[in-house]
Task: structure prediction
Amino acid sequence: MASYQEFQSKLLERFLADIVFIELKPGKNMTVGDYTVPDGIPIPVYMLDLANHIKNEDIENIPVVAIIKGLVYYLGADQDVKGYSDSYVSLLEAIDPQITVSINLDAIKLAESRDYVLAILYFNAVLSIDIHNLDAVYNMGRCYLDLAITKEIEEMYLMAKQCFESSVKIKNDFAEAYFGLGVCLYNEELYLEAEEAWITALRLDLPLEMRDEAIDALGRVRDKALFERGSELIMNHRINEGLEILKTLEEDHDDWWNLLFFIGVGYRAQELYEEAIPYFLKVLTLNTGHIQTMNEIGICFLSVGDLKAAGKYFKEALRLSPDNAELICNLGIVALNEGDMDEARSRFGKAYELAPHDEVVAMWLSHIHQNLN
Result:
């Protein structure tokens, strides 16, 4: 997705259509308390029915709430192309020294009424005044998370995650932010990190209603975190440890194709091909057309000398992924074992064209040239 700032600016830019600017005549300015708006800076105002005031530049008769709302909309929309923000922040603080508190309260009310995007606009206006305002950044995260859940918009999870990460940077013992972070990480299938975030939240002063949710969440994530840990061990060539963890999950989750896949990979890495093949075949019943599984089955059959079966699975996978250099190379190995040198050379040459930097492909191409010379 686009950067955090770009995504948020695009989300909020529509609110600029709800404000108009009062252009004060030269020599006429706006003063609030000890602050005077510099000459030449227009005043944003939220207006639907005050056109006459704007036309006459009758600034004194425009309700101050309309000016505050116009300033909030401008600051919150992240579109300060003319560089007026510093002046607008000073004006808001002159109008109300506790302006961030007031805007946060309004934003929370908007969020409670499920007007999440407008609430985000308000929270962002607070952050344009005080970039480290914990209430604003955390509650903005909650709004993004609510949008992600209710609207099923994946990008909103990433926006929420950044807000929660910023929250714990501001206050590293903020339990509620760790809870929200866990939800976002779980959605990304980063189960170990989600588990860690929820455990951290429970160790801190998490509100009672969130504690119950965190405990339930830990129950849901436990087996997925174990799977993630076991699969990482397999990928890091710690095969025995990985299989020991993954096999504990098999009885309860024999419908998890990725669990069965990594068990199969573990057995294949141990050269237990006859044990690996049934797992890979079960994967294909759960996830039809999984190219990597077809390739793994082909490797297993090739390793036990069943060239016909190996070729069948490599070709089926290649049909789905016709420019896959690994599959083409594996078909070259099948041809080489069948004694078809021309076919092998053709396959290895094609694989090399697609992946000239692949060391395995280069090795087989070199091997076939040496045998033909």
Q: What stands out?
A: Residues 268 and 276 are 6 Å apart (CA to CA). The chain is about 70% helix and 5% strand. Strands lie at 19-22, 31-32, 35-36, 43-46. The chain has a mean pLDDT of 90.
